[in-house]
Amino acid sequence: MAFKTEFEFTLPKGFVDEQGNLHRKGVMRLATAKDEIIPLQDFRVKNNRAYLVIILLSRVITRLGELKEGEVNPGIVEGLFSADLSYLQEFYRQINESGTANVGAKCPSCGQEFQVDIGTGATALGES
Fold first, then answer.
1. 18-62: pLDDT as tens digits
2. What total number of domains does the chain contain?
C-alpha cells in the first residue's frame, strides 16, 4: 500500500465564486514543516494570529471544485462559510495527526464497528 499524501473532502456548505458557482469537493494534501513555518512570517499573521489558519489552509488545499491547481489562495479561504472553515480545520488536524481521514465509529443499534472517511463519508467495516 502506497503512502497517501492527498485526501478528498466535501465541504458542508461550499464556496460560492464570483459567478455564483458552488464548489464543494476538494483535495487537501498533508502539510510539510514549511507549510507551518512560512505563514508565521506573513504580515497578516503577525498582525492577527487568527489569520494563520487562512494562510495554512490556502497552502494545503490543492483543489476545490472547478478551481484549478494554484487558484486556492487566502482570498478564497477567506470567502468560505464559517461551517466550512471549521470543517477544514478539523479535517486538517485529522489527516496530519493520524495520516488518514478515517475515524472509528460504532453502530448504536447492533454494535458493529466501522470506519468513516470524514472527507468523503465512505464507510468500511472495521476490525472487531
1. 999 999 999 999 999 999 999 999 999 999 999 999 999 999 999
2. 1
